[in-house]
Amino acid sequence: MIQRRALLGAISLGAAAPAAWAQTEAFPNRPVSMVVAFPPGGQADVVARPVAAALERLWRVPVPVQNRAGAAGEIGNGAVARAAPDGYTILMALSSVVVLPEAAKLFGRAPAYTLDQLQPLALVSADPVLLAVPAASPWRTLEEFIADAKRRPGEISYSSSGNYSALHLPMAMLAAAAEIDMLHVPFQGGAPALTALVAGQVQALASGPGPISPHVREGRLRVLASWGARPIAGFEDVPTLLSKGFSGVEYYIWCGAYAPAGIQAPIAQRLRQGLAAAAADPDVVRALNAAGSAIDHRDGDAFARFAAADAERLARVVQRIGRID
């Protein structure tokens, strides 16, 4: 009897294996949703749309971008963390994805998701953020901006994509390094934060190059500084904060793709292969270059190591900011 049960079990497993393989071979055979945890027009959205279009051409299935904004990215990130790990829901995340669970600890609440609920697939881009101000503002240099902020503590306002978000942390780093006090005005995403700056509702914004580049070209915004290690393409004349003598202020806003943890390895591999192909797609490269961004593709484990190191570094920034009530 025991031998018969073992034989039946082996037959069952043997039958299941080809079925699972066939399912993997057919993947994807229906739409793959790409979630962006912010409104349209922000950095993650700027990256997600050309990548999704490239995946549609490759897989011949729709790859709709779904903007699920709210709580500085927690809502969309958490939705993907809880999604079925079947490969049909993926996240195009901003760097704040590794920060928000740490921020939740400040409030003594359970985070909307934890990092072990998300499996890194591929880094797509990593750009230093830029300090942008209205072109009509009185500041033409970083030094003028900082001097004015010191004269008027708490009066110069800046927008962000939410508390502890990818656009909040760099300004908090600058404020600590320059010993200035500014008024933080959080929004539900990078696009409304940028709209507020262009409309003159706030006076400064730290942003990836993509969203602000058209406004800089059209003369509505001026860029005073970069959080990068070196000048970036299209903004070669913009000084870095490091070159101005500030330490501990290097910061990059990166976009990377994640799947829900528990996804089958062959399906994760298919997703990673698709993302690698998209990163090399000439249309994607052109779209990101036109937006002032650049491809920085890192696959699987390399992306996981990159994100883990950034999470550790940025956790210290979150702890320094402290609880925001």
From TrEMBL:
Leader sequence residues: 1-22
Alphabetical UniProt keywords: Signal
Pfam families assigned: TctC
Record's keyword annotation contains Signal: yes
Keyword Signal in annotation: yes
InterPro entries, sorted: BUG, Bug_dom1
Family membership: Belongs to the UPF0065 (bug) family.
PANTHER family noted in UniProt: BLR1237 PROTEIN, TRICARBOXYLATE-BINDING PROTEIN
Protein name as annotated: Tripartite tricarboxylate transporter substrate binding protein
Organism encoding this protein: Plastoroseomonas hellenica
Lineage: Bacteria, Pseudomonadati, Pseudomonadota, Alphaproteobacteria, Acetobacterales
